[in-house]
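Lab meeting, item 3. Inverse folding demo.
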């Protein structure tokens, strides 16, 4: 998204913290302020919330993806999302505050972050559009096309929650394929 110079990379590496999460371990909890950016080195996490005792999965994040609860951070309000490892995961975290300080110092990093924010916004708008405009069969079909390798790594329960349907409905859809 933006080519970073050596000095920027060196300073960025100083604020990165390598962490590990076991399967089903939380990286972040709802009802807390989001203060970190995450970058998945190995593994998968789900970005989800609970409503009326049911889990809703907004996104899956896998290797080489930068993400965070941007709404919580930018608006300084408690997050409604949990971030949960769905397989053993290695990830980098960095303080939003420290990252923003580096952005003030390094124009290319600021450019990178601006482009990241635009992409995150476009991805979320596409997700919302998909949920509102497409039926379950089409959402499943899109998921298979866009995420063939991810399909092999997540549970059918998580996939059903992501698609906004029951596992029984997912089984019916899969049986027609």
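The presenter then showed the designed sequence:
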């Amino acid at each position: 998204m933006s080519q970073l110079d050596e000095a920027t990379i060196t300073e960025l590496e100083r604020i990165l913290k390598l962490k590990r999460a076991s399967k089903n371990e939380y990286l972040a909890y709802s009802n807390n302020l989001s203060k970190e950016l995450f970058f998945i080195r190995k593994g998968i996490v789900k970005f989800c919330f609970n409503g009326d005792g049911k889990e809703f999965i907004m996104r899956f994040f896998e290797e080489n993806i930068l993400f965070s609860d941007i709404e919580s951070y930018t608006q300084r309000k408690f997050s409604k999302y949990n971030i949960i490892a769905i397989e053993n995961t290695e990830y980098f975290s960095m303080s939003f505050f420290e990252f923003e300080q580096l952005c003030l110092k390094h124009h290319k990093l600021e450019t990178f972050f601006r482009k990241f924010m635009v992409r995150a916004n476009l991805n979320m708008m596409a997700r919302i559009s998909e949920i509102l405009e497409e039926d379950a069969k089409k959402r499943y079909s899109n998921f298979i096309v866009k995420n063939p390798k991810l399909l092999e790594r997540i549970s059918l329960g998580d996939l059903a929650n992501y698609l906004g349907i029951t596992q029984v409905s997912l089984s019916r859809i899969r049986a027609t394929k």
